[in-house]
Amino acid sequence: MNRNKDAINTSYYQHTLKDSFTCVGPGLHTGLKILMRVFPGEANTGIVFCRRDVDYSCAEIQANWHNVSDTRLSTSIANSRGVRVSTIEHIMAALYACDIDNVRILVDGPEVPIMDGSAAPFVQLIKNAGRVQQDAERKAIIIKQAVSVLHENKFASFQPSPIQWMELEIDFEASPIGKQKISAPIQDKIFEDELAAARTFGFQEQIKTLHKLGLAQGGSLQNAVLIENNEVVNEEGLRFKDEFVRHKMVDSIGDIALIGARVIGRHHSICSGHQLNHALIQKLMTNEHAWVYSTMRGAHEYWSEIARPHYSDKEMGENQEFMSNPGFYIH
Ligand SMILES: [Zn+2]
């Protein structure tokens, strides 16, 4: 039974940063130079963005799935007054994977800096700032029933599992990408070593259209992998052979983090993106039979004492096999 706890692999208690950190750089879509400062947050406050360039009375935006306002190419959230912040998924993924529950993020514009297009700079800044435990139980939701969404050839689902586990498949026509598949638990060390450095990517053929839509204004070879005529344009090449699917996993973790609690279950997607991830989260959260609100302690107890007899050996087999040999799987 201890293996379940190891596999859940995160503290029973909430954490915040020990110190604040600052970063600055262009936003991927607005192209604006943004200063972002991330401060420790009180227990049970979650991730809160605060726009420094608007009136204080309407500056706060809670990072929660209720507030998702746009999912075209990146995830944006907005408050009831329409004040928004976009491209939040990489900092959200880094905070979630690094087990940070509560922070206050001040931005002086409508977007999070894109940095190098990956979550690695945020992981480094979080590690440098340090982590402190707080006097409050870490929130979790336990997936009890499978929930899925399907749109054309795209699919995404949550399934019951004692661990926070993700499996992703992508299938692009462009030859540097093609079919890629990845399966890994959401865990700080795996995130830091195998996922965080994977960069966002785009296609030269789409750039004119994106610019007309006011998107990708800050995109450059310094913050994205660019593909043209089935070739990677960036001189330095790829950071991983399958950098694309790894980045998709970062994006999905960032989207799932908007649930506002640890999600104890397995997320599986095929050709998914921010839009389908959000549709899945909406379907899950509005289906009260599919999940139960709990804590990390409660999730451990649930899987140790309650749920185990209700799952067949076959259903548990994959999980048990994983738990006895946790690692990173690339297919
Ligand atoms: Zn991304």
Explain this structure.
This protein is an alpha+beta fold and 331 residues long. The chain has two domains: 2-9 and 140-330, lpxc deacetylase, domain 2 (lpxc deacetylase, domain 1, 2-Layer Sandwich); 13-138, lpxc deacetylase, domain 1 (Ribosomal Protein S5, domain 2, 2-Layer Sandwich). The chain is 28% helix and 31% strand. It is built from nine helices and 22 strands. A six-stranded mixed β-sheet has the order 12-13-20-14-15-22, covered by helices on one side. Strands 2-3-9-4-5 form a five-stranded mixed β-sheet, covered by helices on one side. A three-stranded antiparallel β-sheet has the order 6-7-8, with no helix packed on it. Strand 12 (147-151) and strand 13 form a beta hairpin. Helix 2 packs across helix 6 and helix 6 (243-256) packs parallel to helix 7. The longest helix has 14 residues, at 243-256. It is globular and about 55 Å long. The two termini are 29 Å apart. The model is unreliable at 1-8 and 323-328 (pLDDT under 50). The chain binds zinc ion. Zinc ion binds at residues 89-90, 200, 247, 251.
Summed up, the helix count is 9
Question: What's the CATH C level of the largest domain?
Answer: Alpha Beta
Any idea of the CATH topology of the largest domain?
Answer: lpxc deacetylase, domain 1
Tally of structural domains: 2
Structural class: alpha+beta
Ligand types: zinc ion
Task: Output the CATH homologous superfamily of the largest domain.
Answer: lpxc deacetylase, domain 2
